[in-house]
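Email to the structure team, subject: Homocysteine S-methyltransferase model.

Hi all, the expression group asked for a predicted structure before they design truncation constructs. Nothing fancy, just the tokens so they can compare against earlier work. One-line instruction: predict Homocysteine S-methyltransferase, return tokens.
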Amino acid sequence: MLDGGLSNQLEHTGHDLGDALWSARLLADRPEAITAAHRAYADAGADVVITASYQATFEGFGRRGIDRGRAAELLRLSVRLARDAAGDGDGARRPRWVAASAGPYGAMLADGSEYRGRYGLGVRELERFHRPRLEVLAEAAPDVFALETVPDVDEARALLRAVRGLGVPAWLSYSIAGGGTRAGQPLEEAFAVAADAEEVVAVGVNCCSPEDADAAVPVAARVTGKPVVVYPNSGERWDPAARAWRGPALFAPGRAGTWRDAGARLIGGCCRVGPGAIAQVAAELAGTP
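Reply from the structure team: attached below.
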């Protein structure tokens, strides 16, 4: 059982995330707020807590005048905060895992390109971007990497190369629209790049509509033979120009059983899915493997 959207929980408790660093800004300014947000999801029944490092990069921190040494400290701090909040479970459950989040290159740009991909960079350039922060996150000993919201097969290839040899398993999770990645590649092609990657323990989707997740889960299971990870948004649509969510919320905890039956073993929520919804999903899945 995964957690839900970190940013919406932080905003719910009064924090302004209208900054290019998004939730990563609070690693420097209000780390205790991040711990409290993680704890809300742990209390709701999440077994896996995802760190606040999605938009935490050396380049993004550098634009705020934070040098590489301090940026590395903040990356490691993201794992410690999640570990502190996760604790060892509540006694009746297995110990909780910490997943170190690594978002796409476009998240660092903070211009909406994370929803498009195709940045004009090759696989080697993207690997050089991702590898340094993954090395630092690995030093903090997370249980797993969350290579998440990946819009493009080329970036997925770069991330899979970047995690090699770090000694931390990973899940690879695409952001999708309809039957393809955000960059327009077929899902079969996208999932296939992880099928033989030894480091990858699960493949799936996040930061997408629940309907798109319904269709993607069985494809990921069939193409890779690996467990599937799925954590969609509420169903509302992010308007990057207006920096606002549009449309109705469609996330239904009852979908979790369908995803599980189709091969999902890591199930939760992304943007706009809060602790209440995660508690409902946990109840839906209670007593199942």
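The CA atoms of residues 39 and 85 lie 5 Å apart. Residues 68-86 form the longest helix (19 residues). Ping us if the truncation boundaries need rechecking.
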